[in-house]
From TrEMBL:
Residues 1-129 form the N-acetyltransferase domain. It comes from Shewanella phaeophyticola. Acetylates the N-terminal alanine of ribosomal protein bS18. The gene is rimI. It is an enzyme of class 2 (transferase). InterPro entries: AcTrfase_RimI/Ard1, Acyl_CoA_acyltransferase, GNAT_dom, YpeA/RimI_acetyltransf. This is [Ribosomal protein bS18]-alanine N-acetyltransferase. Its EC number is 2.3.1.266. Pfam families: Acetyltransf_1. It comes from the Bacteria. The lineage of its organism: Bacteria, Pseudomonadati, Pseudomonadota, Gammaproteobacteria, Alteromonadales. Keywords: Acyltransferase, Cytoplasm, Ribonucleoprotein, Ribosomal protein, Transferase. One of its GO terms (molecular function) is protein-N-terminal-alanine acetyltransferase activity. It is found in: Cytoplasm.
Length: 129
């Protein structure tokens, strides 16, 4: 099942600023094509996965799994004790990926995301490192 993602809100400059403030990991092909990226913020011993993205043509090939496993390893090396994230309730493929590497639901934000049909919950997940 493919999930439709909404565009990132706000100007590109806001996203570009993240690259200077947070840990960013990207996967490039031999043709220097961006296959995916992830952005993590770490405050003291808590790491938060802010975004993870794999180009649509490369989804389902294991790049997301490689990125998340590498992020977990890097966070642990940086002495984080937990990684946290939030995901839309309807994003079953992302939830499956996170559960595959050991994340579990730790809470919910009711009606957090606006949709065309109303609102949906944000699922909070975490994984001890």
């Amino acid at each position: 099942m493919k999930t439709k993602h909404t565009p990132i809100p706000g100007p590109e400059a806001v996203i570009a600023d993240c690259f200077g403030l947070y840990i960013v990991l990207s996967a490039l092909s031999s043709r220097v094509q961006l296959l995916g990226f992830a952005i993590v913020q770490q405050i003291i011993d808590e790491a938060t996965l802010l975004d993870i993205c794999v180009a649509p043509a490369y989804q389902g090939l294991g790049f997301g799994l490689l990125l998340i496993r590498h992020l977990l390893s890097e966070a642990k090396q940086a002495q984080a004790v937990v990684m946290m994230l939030e995901v839309r309730e309807s994003n079953t493929s992302a939830k499956g990926l996170y559960e595959k590497v050991g994340f579990s639901e730790s809470g919910r934000r009711k009606n957090y995301y606006q949709t065309n049909n109303g609102n949906e919950d944000a699922i909070l997940m975490d994984k001890p490192l």
